[in-house]
Amino acid sequence: MTIHEVTAEEHNDYNGVVDHPVQTWEWGEFREKTGNKILRLGLYDKNKLVEGYLLTLHRLPYTNRCVAMLAKGPAPTRQMLINLRDWARQENIIFIRFEPNTSLTHKSTQHILELFKTFKMCAGRPFFNKKTPEIDLTQSEEELLKKMHPKTRYNIRLAQRHGVEVTEDNSEESFARYLDLMDETTRRQNYFAHTEHYHKLMWKTLRLAGIAHLLKAVYQRTTLASWILFVWKDKLYYPYGASNNEHRNVMAPYATMWQAIKFGKSLNLKSFDLWGSDEAKGYTRFKEGFGPKNIESLGTWDMPINNNLYYLYRLAEEIRWKFLKLKARFIPLSSFR
Q: Which InterPro entries has this protein been placed in (predicted)?
């Protein structure tokens, strides 16, 4: 087995071996447009590409050093970790942050955790929440409704009685409304969000590739909720959603989720990843009402290459995130435009 950079001619082969939207070729193109340096590495058995790794490289100011991030990649193996460690040593990488797309119930979980100890890896700051709710789309609509919380079923019916209509609309006008709602949602809920520029680049790149889709919930000619969904292989994802505070009594978000479920089923997808949960957040209670199964991942693990610089980076990282959380309380998304 050898590891080396994937060429542009291998675009389709690369996408064929990656299992998550943030590992796709197109996600790499999007991240490049936001200013990140990216690297696509492949694991080859002779001349056959068998695994792909999309790494984002983040250069430290005033240095020639980088940190490498590998989010939602394949389950780590000894050979993978050896190859990436050797590559990182040659490239002045301070550390590699891994967040495998692997659940704690994976058959190799214990072996992987032992590997992390062998390579002296330590817990890192997560990209994604460690737990994510996931809905089994192979069930019938009747089975899905039966598993929901009674209040959730009631709210879906209530939205239907009020005449809330949810449709897929990938037009520029619909996306512009999504941005307005995202601005409003961010200001209302006081959390740090990606910029409008980020969302525009993400949408343009992933929509063109057929990965991103936009659902809107309309009541009396007003869009009350707008969600971006990703479709990749046999799975649907809900990474971004926004709503306004008007007409809350018509339960537009419940109608949107139910239509998203039916959208996934219409494409014969097998599951619906709701993109993370946090027991302290209201959005988690909303998601839990739809009867998902909670999947817990292996979490985030750092492989230090330069130990001294790694610990300095972690200290600076903690200070930065405390500042961003404070900033988000006072500066809305619109101020980042």
A: Acyl_CoA_acyltransferase, FEMABX, PG_Glycine_Bridge_Synth
